[in-house]
Amino acid sequence: NNPNNPVIGDRSFGEDRLNVSLKGLAYMEGMQENGVLACGKHFPGHGDTDVDSHVGLPVIEHPWTRLDTLELYPFKVLMSQGLASVMTAHLHIPTLDDTPDRAASVSPAITGALLRDSLGYQGLAVTDALNMKGVADHYNPGALEVEAFRAGNDILLFPEDVPAGIRALKAAFASGELDLAELDRRVHRILQAKAWAGLDRWRPHPTEGLTEALNAEPAQRVLDEICRRRLTLVRNGYNLLPFRTGDSLNLALVDLGRASASTFQNTLLGYGDFPAFQMPENATGGDYAALLNTLGSADVVVVGLHGMSRWKRLNYGLTETEVGFVQRLSRRTRVVLVVFGTPYALEFFPEADHVLVAYDAFAAGQRAAAKALFGQMPLRGRLPVSAGPSYPSGMGLDLAAARLRPGDLHEVGFAARSAHRIDSIVERALRLRATPGCRILVAKDGQVFYDKAFGYHTSAREYPVRPKDLYDLASITKVAATTIAVMRLWERGELDLDAKVEDYLSELDGTNAGSRRLRDVLTHTARLQPWVPFYQYTLDADGKPDLRVYRSSPEGDFDVEVAEGFYMNRHWQDSILRRIGEAPLRTQREYKYSDLGFYLLRRIVERASGEPFAEHLDKHFYGPMGLRTMGFNPRQRFPETRIVPTEYDDYWRKQLLTGYVHDMGAAMMGGIEGHAGLFSSAEDLAALFQMLLNGGTYGGHRFLSDSTIRIFTARQSSKHRRGLGFDKPEPDDRKIGPTSTMCSEATFGHSGFTGTCVWADPRHGLLYVFLSNRVHPSMDNRTLISENVRTEIQDELYRGLRQGTWLDGAYRGLDGGPAGSP
Questions:
Q1: Dist. CA 4–CA 55, nearest whole Å
Q2: How many CB atoms neighbour CB 626 within 10 A?
């Protein structure tokens, strides 16, 4: 509780007595429940000193009422709960003992009358190190040990001259100056503590591998959680945070005190290709001036303070040049200051508009800070100390996570054994060659608690599946592209779901398809044919690609890239649309899944918006959400090694399809179509559906209204399961549906032919993404479907949530209701 304290620093939990007491109590209980003697230090309170007791004797002048209500408060709380030991401090406190230069550690009035008699403490009393100048300068060796014993200490720590101390104590006991019976009581207390700690049964512990054992995964998880939860957003002057956009944000990054990019900076670069700079400790004024000019055009600069010190005498590791640079930069543009060190350093930046404190340089904290800036981490920390009048203790802003965020099984209440069962289901599928590999991502209430990659890109096992790999989503395109575009235009009044196709596509006026209502197209009740193998019409009599339709390189009208070295005449696209318009309608108006209507919806979106389909989606959804992998024709944006291949096409394109859409019709449309063609990573697909679960918001933006989402994802008829565009659980128990039978009826999503699915359950806050290339090497491989792999995994998700909600013997209920029987 003194910012100028030169010795305590972050060895205290803070300046607020309740915060310090609660955290101290938790720390004490954690130690003592595991057989470690906890020691509260430094009694009666070293927090409000401005002298280092290693080099001098600090003096505390406060009256008794202040000492009793503040400094002593945490000690009294912990003593009442069984604190095993206390360390007495080298402090001079005239209110408690006015003997000149007498420290509390050698004061009978403090260590004896106050600690033992008034507070009734019966645990061990240990002196602070007796070689420290705060006491050693005032006593001769031997005399100091006698005074420390006389004061009431059980253990005399670190005497400068142990033989001299022993001789002086023996002499004092022999002369009667010290009581031998009191020595017996002290030794007995020490032996009791040793017995409690099991030292009467002590056996040497092997030290091989000890460091690894102490820092095993469970401990690392706790450290990671602490690093996440303590992050403190001190200021957010313009509500700039969390950053609301991805690549479109004119953002620059600066690490001060580093010669190379930090973990923090590298994590930020995962959100966009931002210019990044580092300034080492030996950077010159000229270096800073040049950087200041370079950064002048940035809208926002994120400045990470690294290489910091805990010591005020060292200005907490900050140089005048660094402080001056931040201040000058703040006058030119908006600065987000992230402090990887003591919060006391904030005194140098009293007028900073955006400040995040991470407290130290742990890699876990750096990653968490970067994720928090982009809304992937909630912020709810509070400053434990004051840093000048601008930053009082307790200051901190709450900020909810605006994007999917990392979590773990424990946080969401998911049974670990169910996670292991999911692993087993996937491993079995890989053994059966149902798919070469897959990606699974599962989130609950916005927290990703299961996120794994399995297997390889292909049966050749050359490239293992990695988290950010892209998959061909196949028919998930219908909802992740076409339907969301329709939703946006509908809620803006630019589309009428009860209008006919020909009302928007005049070229289809009078055709079978032109007479269909948009609402019926979206629910697959428009009587359209399920599928037309358009590519077969472009084969010659021998079943080979007709040279009147295709070329091996682009030339003239042959500019539609269907696959590598395979270009189609663009006029054939008109033929496809004409065939869709003229195709005979089915006789029954019952539900029948069809791709054809989504070819038409893609063009309706383009006519209504005045924008090309892919550009419309990038502009209004994918770009603002920062979905860097989601889009069409991924080979134009990513290396082939990032894209998981699908089928080896031996019937038309005669090649392994990597980054070219598997669906033949979509391929003939240049890879961009309303029913197929979208590629994405699991993370980006999950983000899109989390936006829908959030009621239309993500990353600080609103993309759709909650009411629009409810309307489109609701079942549209008692005669079928479909929503508007979205697929739903099967309500008829006699039919096999696309989802687990444990899903709520509010669940919505879609499956894809290539072996993909995404399902969102609003009632349980559950999001499930499964991406695979089960069509490799051939689309005739139906093992993933026949073995029901995707649905079995989804079943286990619901079982795991039910089993994981048994906490402390009380079942909370999967629906979040009151405890009761499962």
A1: 16
A2: 25
Name residue 310's amino acid: R
Two structure tokens written together for 398 = 């709450």
Phi-psi region of 527 (alpha: psi -120 to 50; beta: other; left: phi over 0): left
C-alpha 696/C-alpha 621 separation (Å) is: 11
Q: What is the pLDDT of residues 684-732, one digit of tens each?
A: 999 999 999 999 999 888 999 999 999 999 999 999 999 999 999 999 8
**Residues 535 and 550 sit within 8 Å (Cβ to Cβ):** no
pLDDT tens for residues 132-184? 988 999 999 999 999 999 999 999 999 999 999 999 999 999 999 999 999 99
Note if the pTM is more than 0.90. no
Beta bridge partners of 92: 59
* Lookup result for tokens 């890699």: 363
Catalytic residue among 97, 128, 649, 727: 128
Give catalytic status of residue 684 as yes or no: no
62 is a catalytic site residue: no
488: phi then psi, degrees, rounded to nearest 5: -65, -45
For the four alpha carbons of 501, 503, 505 and 506, in that order, the dihedral sign comes to positive
DSSP secondary structure letter of residue 270: G
67 contacts: CB under 8 Å, gap ≥ 6: 44, 45, 60, 93, 95, 96
3-state DSSP helix/strand/coil percent for the chain, to nearest 5? 40, 15, 45
Estimate to the nearest angstrom the gap between the alpha carbon of 328 and the chain centroid: 33
Kindly name the residue from 10, 52, 54, 503 that is annotated as catalytic: 54
Instruction: Give the orientation angle of helix 484-491 with respect to helix 706-713, to 10 degrees.
Output: 130
How far apart are alpha carbons 410 and 449 in whole angstroms?
9
Residue type, 474: A
Q: What is the spatial distance between Cα 319 and Cα 341, in angstroms, rounded to a whole number? A: 14
Q: How far apart (Å, rounded) are the C-alpha atoms in residues 403 and 379?
A: 13
DSSP β-ladder status, 648-649 and 655-656 = antiparallel
350 CB-near residues (< 8 Å, 6+ apart):
388, 389, 390, 391
Q: What are the DSSP calls for 195-222, one per residue?
A: HHTTGGG--PPP-TTHHHHHT-HHHHHH
